[in-house]
Structures are given as structure tokens and as C-alpha cells.
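Morning F.,

Quick status update on the modeling queue. The single chain you submitted on Monday has been processed. Sequence for confirmation:
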Amino acid sequence: MLFPQLINRNIVDVIVVFVLVSIYSVRLIHNWVKQWRGLGHEDWRYTNYRLKMGNKFWVINLTGLQLMPTIMVYLGSISLYPVLSLRTSSLGLLDIIAIIVTATAITLEALADQQSYKFRRNRENSQEFITTGLWKFSRHPNYLGEVMFWWGLYIFSLAANILYFWAIIGPIAMTILFYVVSIPPMEKRNLERKPDYPEYKKNTSKLILWFPKKRN
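C-alpha cells below.
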């Protein structure tokens, strides 16, 4: 029989997760293509590491810039296994929560990226930075969406098989990746290059969407 592993399983959740992950993936690729500047362009973070590390750059490039993120994504993807292969029950409350969290995450990240892209195309100088839209309530709403996506997948895994609670290492790893590794260098660069950024940082939440503090 074709696809016997799907016997005695509710395939609805498989389709839902497949659709959500596909939308996430296509949006991510589209966002990359839209901002791609050609083979000659190098991300400023790579340039900084290259200048700082010199001949040892290949070490940080291999381990920190290539291997570590790949491992993090692999850990985050563990949540997909129980969803796609182990579920024996029908959709429940956890599935609904997972759908809401994951769909919200994709929407949040897409909207934040679009707002940022539109702002950067229209700004008058490089010292300006976006403080409107979602960026009024978070300094990194796009990263918030990314982190939420992996937590959404984890909730799907719990709904499929509670014994996979240990898959929480995935979303925790992704949260650490963005909160500890990705955000700090961007914050440092903005503080060095944008005179008004310290005030924005003082009044605006780092990741979670929240009302900005009132300026004195």
C-alpha cells in the first residue's frame, strides 16, 4: 500500500505543518532573493570577522558562521519528527495553539522584513533607522517572528507525542542563537553608526513586542 506509515494517523496535521513550513521557507527565500546584491557582496558581519581574525578567519567561518547555525536548525527541526511520523490522535487544543503561534510568527517576520526593506529603500541617509510599524514596539520584530516559528513547531511536536518534550532543546537553541549571537553585534553596530539609536534602545523592547517607554 502506498505510504503505509500514514495508516491510523490523522493526516490533517501533516498537511497543516507542511503548508506552514513551506510558506515559511518560500518567504525566507523570497526575502533573500529580493535583497541579494550579487556574488561580490559580503555581509558586514563576515567582513568584520575577516578583518578581526585574519588568517584564522576560516576557523570562525567554518565553526561559528556555517556549522553552528546548521546544527541549531537541525535541533529545531527535531520537532517535525513526531508530527510527521508518530501521531496517532486527531487534532486537539495544542494543535490549534501551534497553528496560531506558527502562523503568527510567519506573518510577523514577513511584515517586519517588508517594513524594514521599504524603509531602507526610501531613507535619506544610512544613519536613519526604522522606528515605525512593528519596529516601534520591538527593536528586532523579525527575529521575534523567527524565534516564535521554532516554538510553534515544538508545540506541534507536543501535540503529536508528549514523550518528545525533550525536543525543547530546539527552540531553546534557536532562541539563544538570536538573542545571544545575532542581536548583540547588530546592536553594537547600530550604536556606533546611528547617533539616535541609544535613545531608541533605551525606550524600545529588544525582542518582545511591547509599548515603548515615554521619552523624557
